[in-house]
Amino acid sequence: MSNTDLPSRRNLPFRLSVPENDKLAVHVVYALYAATIVLAIPGMFGVLLAYLKRPEVSGTYLESHIHWQIRTFWLWLLMWFIGVVTAIVLVGWVILGFAQLWLLYRIIKGWLVLVDAKPIENPTAFF
Description:
- The chain has 127 residues and is mainly α.
- Helix content is 63%, strand content 0%.
- The chain has helices at 19-36, 41-53, 62-85, 91-115.
- Helix 3 packs antiparallel against helix 4 (91-115).
């Protein structure tokens, strides 16, 4: 099979691997998580972007933000799932409310630290 037989690769209008885009990508993940407060779907795109950026920001202060963001998504999703399952018992609504407030807290905390160009001190912490 020659190169002419292969389908042409489509170039994206941007490159995820450009170091200047690393900080922007982390901002985008926080923005997608903020949209998750209203709709759950943007969070899935946010965590996907975080996973895509993780190898590229390794060794930089952005690595702690990516770790924080990935952990935020999965813990929020777990709380959300538990809340939905237990909503019939009414305690689930409390769990869902807590999950949304916790997500908002993590977004604000992470975003403020990112604006200062600093790493998250303990990205594995719950708060």
